[in-house]
Amino acid sequence: MSTPRVMARTTFGRVFADRGWRGRVATLAVAVTSSSLLLAACGGSNSASSSGSSSQGTPVKGGTLKLVGNGDVDFIDTTSAYYDVSYTLERAFTRQLYTYASVPNFQGQINPVPDLATATPTISANNTVYTIHLRPDAMWGTTPPRPVTAQDEVLGMKRLCNPASPTGAPGYFEATIVGMKAYCDGFAKVKPDVVSIKSYMDGNDIAGVKALDAGTVQFTLTQPASDFLNILALPFSSPVPVEYLNYLPGSPDQATHTISDGPYAITTYVPTRSISLARNPAWKASNDPIRKAYVDRIQITEGIPSATSAQQQIEAGTQDMDWDQNVPTADLAALSARHDPNLVIGPYGDNFITINPLIAINQQSPSNAGALGKLAVRQALEYAFNKYADSQVYGGAVVSKPLDQAVPPGSVGNVSGYDPYPTPGGKGDPAKAKALLKQAGYSPGQITLKLIYRTNTVHPQIAQTDQAALQAAGFNVQLVPVNPANTLYTKYLENPTASQAGSWDIAEPGWVPDWLGNNGRSVIEPLFDGRTYGANTQDWGDYNSQAVNSDIDRALSASSTSDATKAWQAAAKQVMADAAAVPVGSQKTAIYHSTRTHNCVFNFFTQNCDITNVWLSGH
After folding, report:
1. Residue 453 to residue 326: CA distance in whole angstroms
2. Pseudo-torsion of CA 229, 232, 233, 234, nearest 10°?
């Protein structure tokens, strides 16, 4: 069972921008359904458009790539940023020891490849010591340029658990690297100011992270971790320049003093309005095997509330790519049916890797005298949602499918055929939900839930659809709009103060696994390991189960893949038994680009095309 509580530390995870498709509809049930049926009828039609097929021709350099959308990044600081929109930006101005290739197929994006590293690591016989050599000619965009060193990588690791704006994923590092937990435990006691943070970092080391020389970094692990390169490929693991010690992590000052080691540098940043990037003169194509950097500049325009408006601008050629919104549902069917070469649906193939929405349940909310802390009330929520209707709003079977468990298909921990709360056609069971409410001591209409939702893309329609389903199941629902979109996470879900105050009861975030393939810990651990709940948490509902925590530990220490899989599946089943969250759908992402944009290869990590590898014609 779950045990709500408050702790002083952070937890871990990554949020999906939860883009969506806004339909041009007044009568949702009729207009959206007709579009969705069209999509279902042409279910195989997205195969060409989802392969980056507009890459024909010889790439040319130059021009300004223009992206358009609604919201902003959560942070620009690599230590704190944990949002797929932020990752799109970070792809352009940061580098990691390892990253993921930009290739137009699913399998090619599963395994990390060397980025700043010269090759795969040298690993000790007991699989716990990783020695990695850095490219000697990778440079920071300082004046004058200077090499990115192993000391910079150590500094990036030491900065992760700072008390001002820590990483959202401490569990990945504390459970894996020798001495990381002790270092972070000490850091948690430090005042969150520039002087105190710098003093602690200067005076304390992580036992398992060492710079052997300027070009060699060594990690010592607590136990073998077959996914350690995936952890190093996270933007959290980026090296940082020593200048960052002069600014509070995650602060506006840090954001305006960003230093690039990637192909582009941020030249201007106006929060919620625009971001401009230009070539980083210190970057050399010869030492970056991943990013071709064809365009000269990148311009991101934010604050466009309507996905329809963004789509019109891209089709007209005044903008080039989506930023944080997607193809409107009403347009998606027609674009897919005519095999529009500018439509990209990813990930490629039949891979619905994203949980969206994943209904977060605030178990510590004082609203309704703490009703969400009762298992029967949360189980009533499991039966209440019309998952089929939500999937239709998103665009139907081509891009969205109902989901019945907390781990999406294709991720370790998913259990084939498992459906602990079945409903007819995935459309909910109001009678069952009301029966559970009665069992918990509540009559219909007695519980009022504050449902927070974003006002961009399709989210208002999703919120209205969910409100109708919940009210049919015996709940009252108060819709609370949130704008801009990124503040759903930063202001509410990741903010324990707001959660404890009952500022929200349920929410509709989404989740992308942090990596593919061997990815058991990239869903269950971030979302449902409650031992390090606190600021920047991804355990949005404050769920804490001793059984799940034990299963996580068992999975991470397992000696075989099959044993680890069994442990992850046991954890996933316990999460659902406790009704910790309501998985509504698994999803693909539909984006659109201008006719002049080529080689728009979908990247699962950013949930967008790789902006460092597109090129422009006719600029």
Report:
1. 17
2. 130
Beta sheet of 209-213, edge-to-edge order: 122-123, 129-133, 216-220, 209-213
CA atoms within 13 A on the CB side of 192: 11
Where helices occur in 474-584 by DSSP H, the ranges are 487, 496-500, 524-528, 546-556, 561-577
Are the C-beta atoms of 2 and 295 separated by less than 8 Å? no
CA distance 226 to 217: 19
Radius of gyration of the chain (CA): 23
* Digit-coded pLDDT (tens) for 451-492: 999 988 889 999 999 999 999 999 999 999 998 888 898 899
**pLDDT of 312 above 90:** yes
pLDDT for residue 306? 86
**What is the CB neighbour count within 10 angstroms for residue 202?**
10
Q: Are 165 and 80 in contact (CB under 8 A)?
A: yes
CA 60, CA 57: separation in Å to the nearest integer? Answer: 9
Question: CB count, 10 Å around CB of 422?
Answer: 11
Q: Which amino acid is at 254?
A: Q
Establish how many alpha carbons lie within 13 A of residue 335's alpha carbon, considering only the half-sphere containing its beta carbon.
24
DSSP classification of residue 57: S
CA of 63: how far to CAs of 297, 303, 320, 602, 613, in Å? 7, 23, 11, 21, 13
The tens digit of pLDDT for each residue in 532-543 reads 787 778 899 999
Task: Tell which phi-psi region holds residue 52, choosing left (phi > 0), alpha (psi between -120 and 50) or beta.
Answer: left
Segment (H or E) for 309: helix 307-316
CA distances from 461 to 34, 325, 391, 429 (A): 15, 15, 11, 21
Q: How far apart are CA 397 and CA 512, in angstroms?
A: 19
| pTM summary value | 0.88
CA distances from 79 to 90, 469, 517 (A): 11, 39, 24
> Parallel, antiparallel, or unpaired: how do β-strands 506-507 and 358-361 relate?
antiparallel
pLDDT in tens, 125-168: 999 999 999 999 999 999 999 999 999 999 999 999 999 999 98
Q: Taking Cα atoms as reference points, which of 607, 600, 604 lies closest to residue 59? A: 600
pLDDT attached to residue 305: 83
Question: Does residue 8 register a pLDDT over 50?
Answer: no
Residue pair 218/212 in contact (Cβ under 8 Å)? The answer is yes
Q: Which two tokens stand for residue 396?
A: 């139907």
Q: In which residue are the tokens 């990124």 written?
A: 486
Distance CA 566, CA 555 (A): 8
> Do residues 386 and 393 touch, judged by C-beta distance below 8 A?
no
Pick the residue with more confidence: 576 or 537?
Answer: 576
Residue 248: CB atoms within 10 Å = 17
Query: Of 27-31, 111-115, 275-279, 564-568, which range is least confident?
Result: 27-31
pLDDT in tens, 93-110: 999 999 999 999 999 999
